[in-house]
Each structure stands twice: as structure tokens, then as C-alpha cells.
Amino acid sequence: MIAEAQELFPGGVNSPIRAYRAVGGDPPTLVRGKGSRVWDSDGREYVDWVGAYGPLIVGHAHPAVVGAVHDALEAGGPFGVTTRAEVRLGQMIRRRMPSIERLRFCTSGTEAAMSAVRVARAATGRPLLVRFDNAYHGHSEAVMGGPGLLTPPYNDLEEVAALPLGEVAAIIVEPVAGNAGVVPPAAGFLPGLRELCDRHGVLLIFDEVITGFRVAPGGAQQLFDVRPDLTVLGKIIGGGLPVAAYGGRADLMDLVAPAGPVYQAGTLAGHPAAMAAGIATLELLDDAAYRRLEQVGDALEEGLREVGRVARVGPMLTVFLPDEASFAAFHRRLREGGALIAPSQSEAWFVSTAHTDEDVQRTLDAAR
Hints:
Blueprint: H1 2-8, E1 30-34, E2 37-40, E3 45-48, H2 63-74, H3 84-96, E4 102-106, H4 109-124, E5 128-131, H5 141-144, E6 149-150, H6 157-161, E7 168-173, H7 189-200, E8 203-207, H8 219-223, E9 230-234, E10 244-248, H9 250-253, H10 272-284, H11 287-304, E11 309-313, E12 316-320, H12 324-336, E13 339-340, E14 349-350, H13 357-367
Parallel strand pairs: 3-13, 5-6, 5-7, 7-8, 8-9
Antiparallel strand pairs: 1-2, 2-3, 4-10, 9-10, 11-12, 12-14
Helix pairs in contact: 2-10, 3-10, 11-13
């Protein structure tokens, strides 16, 4: 199958990290997932800490999510008009994130980030954008990039303050950096960004594609008590199906067509199956679920400290090893021991409510 894929897709994959270039060897061909486990085409079973890179916070094939998707598909659609499911999921998001007064569903985090930046530029009439070094907001550099992009280091408030903020439309930031390994915000960093934005008329955009509804019921903005002007969401709000959203203050979102001049549209935006999966997932994320996520994250972090430096925020963590060769060897050893992690030290491990104490022990045994 690998040879056939290489004839069809650039590098044999539909997303670069899937090629396993950083760790060597052939990537597994996964054929089934259930709860915290996945199986490859050779019948080998693994504890899955990839979790589709974040969406599967309740594990693979949760009965409530599968049932909701089945019912939505059986009912037909998409319909090309607003559905009850879109309204319901939007209301659930707004209740959990009060900074989001209005929102727009779309189909990828890239599209959502790009659209939020367009709204910010339309609202302020300013050309510049601040995006932190090594951050990832989707492959949207065509809109974000060029001479209008400023890239200070993450967690360096002094560098941000030295920028020409009077010409900046927005600062877009992952409140917990998740694509250079997990990097928590330094004390005062996010409140400091909020204060600088208020002082200079800059809009603050939180990219919570990874952290949204993962690190807290209301995302990182609840965890760190900082209210952004605009928020970008994805992953968990689709329960594993392709979906994203951007939203924020009503006056800003009313710039989006048809209410305003910023045109953005999507044929499959608000797809009924994705809405159903998102609703079912958020309904499962009660206080007990977040307590369990924290417990598993704690146990995993404590054990992995024997291997390397661990950075963790709630149910997302990274083990930092000295170099790429060390990480590649670690990745192979985990895989041989029946645990699967992302094939890059720049990606997080994702804890789900389906992970058990046995999963943690099996993984730590392999890691040691």
C-alpha cells in the first residue's frame, strides 16, 4: 500500500508528518480504532497518544459520537441551508466561551485562522500581523505572510512591545504553543498581550484549535482568564470530523458576509455529521471527564520524567529529548512496546477520557 500511495500523493501522504521522515521506518497502516487503542494492518495493537492530533478527546468510535453521526447521515444532507444542529453546537460553544458572541463554521483550522485575520484587517484598516516564531496557524501564510508579518519569539513580551503596534491589525497566538512541542505561556505573557492590544488598538486572536475545550471546559481563555477579541477553533468541536470555526465580538463578526463586506463562504460548512459529532463530544466533556483527563496527564507526566524533560498543560504534553536521533530511537522503542505517539518532537501527546491506568503503565514500561 505504501508504494501505491507514493504513486498517488506527494511523498505518499496527504499531510507531511504522516511520512515519518523524522523518525525513520515505514509508517504503520492503521485500520481500526476503539477507545484508547488502534490496530494496524498486521493486527498489532497500540495505545494511541496521537488522537488524530487532538480531536479524539473521548477516544476512537465512542458509541455516543458514532450514534449521533449515524443518525445525522441517515437523515440526509448536507442541505445548503442552516440546520438545527449548527445552531445547537454554536450555542454550546458560546456558553462555554463567552468571548464568542457570534461565530462562523468552516471546514479547516487554516480557513478559520485566515478568515479571522481578514476580519481583523477589515476592522482596523491596518496591514500588519503579529504571529509568533515557530507558531502554526495552518498553511495560511499566503494571507498572513509577506512583509506584513512580524514574528517575535513566543513568551517575549518585551519584543512584542517594541514592535510598531500602531500599524498592527492583530496579534494571533496559540495561548499554549502546541506545534513546537507543548510550551506553556510564561506568567503574565497572555495578560500582557491583552494589555498591549488594548493600549494600541490591536485585536487579540487566540488560536484555540488545539486548546479549545481540551485544557479546560472553556479552553485556554478560561484557564488563563484572558478574553480575546477573536477565537479560532477546530479539532474537538468536530469530534474527529472535519470542522472549524472562528468567532468573537459581535461587532467584529458582523463584518462577515452577508452581514458585512468580508466575504467568506463554504459549501460543506456546518455539515450535519460534523455538527452531530461535535455536539456529542461536548456533551461528554463534563467535570468528571476533565478530572479524569488531569489524572491521566499527571500519571503520564510523572512517569515520563525518567526519560526526558516533560512539558504539560492538562491533557496535552511533550517529552523533550536532547536531539532528533534520541527522539527517533525513543519513538521506535515506544512503537515496539505497543504505544504510538506522533512522529515528531514538535507535536503533543493527547490524552483522552478513554485512556486507562493500564494504558499509562504499558506506555511507561515501553518508555523505560
